[in-house]
Amino acid sequence: MNKKDNVYGQKYRKLRVLHHISLVNAAKNVTNKSTLAEWEKGKDNLSWCKVIQLLFNIHIQPIEFLEDSVSSQLYGAITNIAVAYRRNDMQQLIIIFKENLKKYEGDTKSKDYMFQAAIAANFYEDLSEHNVCPSILKDKIILYFSNIIDNKNFWCYEDIFYFGLITQLLDARHLHGFSLKLLEYIEKNPIDSKVWNELAINALLNADFSLMKKDLKKAEELYNRLDILEAIDNYAELIIRKKFLESLIQYLKNNSNVEIFFYFVA
User: Out of the domains of life, which is the source (predicted)?
Assistant: First the structure.
């Protein structure tokens, strides 16, 4: 996602100057001094991931700087998919999937088209239990998240957003591996933001629900790792989802609905 906007560049410059950090030090390992200077003036583009890395260079939490703008744009981009999913409109999901897949095939560098096609396919599969996502698109998604891990396991807000919405499409090995890496990132980089934490934990819960259908052993292993994630205890809705996940795992392991029964009557 590229952004050319005076507001963000100027806001970043004010924070950089406030912290007495030079252009050279702010741009270190992210971009060059001249590109950063141009972006601060609103005359150049930088990806959100680079902006987040720049924020770390001036000791600012990314979520404080980008939370409202990034989250609203991301959710806005998939509104039509979310509406179709809530209405159980599988026909509309297929239409959205095909439209975005065609756009992506015409512009394979477009992350937006790639993920909009993938998210539509993911939600369609959730409703129909029928896979429509081509292998080549799945491979591109796997490559995308593999590159995140290879790049010092640095997860941007939008990376976590996308990951939580395509968990049905990944095979058990990759889904489990990416989930553990995201969990590792959350544990090592705690961020004091309700929106960020809910997004990240929901993404992991989505991954575990999907894993149950693919590999119960891996699903249980991920659940046990989630069980020690302290941040989850701060959110009532997430506690409920986690408890239901535990009940489903026990049901599948023991072929008993006792845990699910107590979940609903407790």
Answer: Bacteria
Confidence band of 14 (pLDDT split at 50, 70, 90): confident
- Of the two residues 17 and 164, the one the predictor is more confident about is 164
Residue 200 contacts residue 161 (beta carbons within 8 Å): no
The domain made up of 1-60 has a fold known as 434 Repressor (Amino-terminal Domain) (1.10.260)
What is the mean predicted confidence (pLDDT) over 37-64?
79
Per-residue CA distances from 249 to 87, 124, 208, 215 (Å): 28, 24, 10, 11
Domains of the chain, residue spans? 1-60, 61-265
What CATH number is given for 61-265 in this structure? 1.25.40
Residues in the chain: 266
pTM of the model: 0.75
For 210, phi then psi, to 5°, come to -70, -40
